[in-house]
Automatic annotation (TrEMBL):
Its cofactor is Ca(2+). This is alpha-1,2-Mannosidase. Its main location: endoplasmic reticulum. It is an enzyme of class 3 (hydrolase). It comes from Geococcyx californianus (Greater roadrunner). Involved in the endoplasmic reticulum-associated degradation (ERAD) pathway that targets misfolded glycoproteins for degradation in an N-glycan-dependent manner. May initiate ERAD by promoting the first mannose trimming step of ERAD substrates, from Man9GlcNAc2 to Man8GlcNAc2. Seems to recognize and bind to exposed hydrophobic regions in target proteins. The active site is at residues 43, 184, 277, 298. SUPFAM superfamilies: Seven-hairpin glycosidases.
Amino acid sequence: TLSLVLSSFPLQILGNVSEFQRVVGVLQEGVDFDIDVNASVFETNIRVVGGLLSAHLLSKKAGVEVEVGWPCSGPLLRMAEEAARKLLPAFQTPTGMPYGTVNLLHGVNPGETPVTCTAGIGTFIVEFATLSHLTGDPVFEDVARKALKALWKNRSDIGLVGNHIDVITAKWVAQDAGIGAGVDSYFEYLVKGAILLQDKELMSMFLEYNKAIKNYTKFDDWYLWVQMYKGTVSMPVFQSLEAYWPGLQSLIGDVDNAMRTFLNYYTVWKQFGGLPEFYNIPQGYTVDKREGYPLRPELIESAMYLYRATRDPTLLELGRDAVESIEKISKVDCGFATIKDLRDHRLDNRMESFFLAETVKYLYLLFDPDNFIHNDGSVFDVVITPYGECILNAGGYVFNTEAHPIDPAALHCCRKRKEEQWEVEDLMREFYSLKKKTNKKFTFKRTSDHGEGESAKDPEDALSEKGGEKRNSRKNSHSLLSCPSQSFTSKLAVLGQVFLDNT
């Protein structure tokens, strides 16, 4: 139920602020994670932790009353932290790669299988790094990084990773290499983690993978499945989940290749009115027992990213086709049903949560060029945190793999480098000493809720500045904004796109 509620959170703020406020109010009353339930570590992270973090960061924009000290504190942030802590036992393996399932009350069950898919290991850095930066507890980012590095260490000699691996022994159980199901969001999070954290290492990992993927899996702008050690074709199929790839290519500036691949996928859409789960490329038709279309978002997601990069009207045509197709063949009295078989458009009695969380959201954003998500940085909010003035909502949002947007600026609001912390504390001690000499009352209280010191602030001042201030960057001095220099060889453009120097 919580996953379903969170799936539509950012959609509600995009189109229905009052509903967003109502649901946030209900959630703030508390959710109990101390339950005897076996939960998917991957799904709980991307849906529950990611949804709560996104709702926390968007709540002020939606008019929800926030705590003094937000975005470094708040009930939704505490709830996200509680949920994430329930997942940490899964990472306690010899390799640092997590189990696929954890019991929320008891931890990893004794009989739990050690075999986890690659995506289930490499899809944590966006949420866990955000959580670490907001709370000051490095444990979340640390375990996510360790899992990413373990996958990198165990890639094959030709630079590919398989589909499933034993997290205890690091032996590959399924050795099919590709960009689709079981692997997809691992590659996605290397790129998005690099953008979110300005991380050279993560981007370098992806670019190396990208070379191997092009060398061994790409054929005529299609991407096939190959044996990870030999590079021989194992499955000449296109999976609908692979349709995220053109959008990911656009994020690193490889727009020409992205458009060619996107157009291949679009021809499949036009053939069936949707993307079948599997499509046999040589035969040009669906694969037996994989003819369904559960209204997945990946092709529309790529269309949104590519339209922001190119303004090519073909991408809007896909959006129009998607809206018309979903309305015509999927709409029922109480929602939008999964297409059981695209050959005759028979329906299944279910609607996936990602339809609300992703498909509708990406369609909305494709056709709404002025949405705040697409902000180019000309407008932003200034908020006061325990660490000083902070810039938020300036654009460049990074979507997690369940389409929950994370504001990268928020990661810089709640943490300072240790030397800066010491400098502040030294100044405060000096000030305290001067005050004692003049016999005036002054109290400096050192706080360590998150393991780092916070500068003292008059509560009345904090309350008066609680609401923040909307400003226009074109009318303000440059002192408000500080753009960190990027450590990897690329330029971060507006709209969250990274264009490499050689493109």
